[in-house]
Amino acid sequence: MLSFYATRVAKFAETEEWGSGALVYMALEDETGLKGGQYWKGPRGVSLQGGTHSKDFKPIDMNPEALKEDNMTQLWELSLKLCNLEK
Known about the structure:
The protein has one domain (about 1-60). Helix content is about 45%, strand content about 5%. It has four helices and two strands. The protein has helices at about 1-10, 15-30, 55, 70-80, and strands at about 40, 60. It starts with a helix and ends in a 5-residue tail after the last helix.
């Protein structure tokens, strides 16, 4: 029900097919020029507008906050704690 609402009514999420297709595209497409530290994004609702990964799915820069060493360390430590793991 939430998936239907998010993709069809509120249109703030993409379909499952689009999301899985995005992973396949990034893994298999030679022309993506993938390099580490990239995030990818398409226009909102692109999966419902007939968009394609090769045309509408583009790499974007990471948020500068994500590149700060202190933030990385805090996130890692919190992740370990929430997963009940040790360093």
